[in-house]
From TrEMBL:
It comes from the Bacteria. Pfam families: HTH_1 (PF00126). The lineage of its organism: Bacteria, Pseudomonadati, Pseudomonadota, Gammaproteobacteria, Enterobacterales. This is Virulence genes transcriptional activator SpvR. InterPro entries: LysR_HTH_N, WH-like_DNA-bd_sf. GO terms for molecular function: DNA-binding transcription factor activity. Gene3D superfamilies: Winged helix-like DNA-binding domain superfamily/Winged helix DNA-binding domain (1.10.10.10). Residues 1-42 form the HTH lysR-type domain.
């Protein structure tokens, strides 16, 4: 459970630091759909 929380926080922080979904997906090596889902869950 802690792993999932840490992963979601990392995704959120990366999105805030980059200010862009496109850049965040490149940095995190994920597509936009999972990124959007994580943000929706938060």
């Amino acid at each position: 459970m802690d792993f999932l929380i840490n992963k979601k926080l990392k995704i959120f922080i990366t999105l805030m630091e980059t200010g862009s979904f496109s850049i965040a997906t490149s940095v995190l090596y994920i597509t936009r759909t999972p990124l959007s889902r994580v943000i929706s869950d938060l």
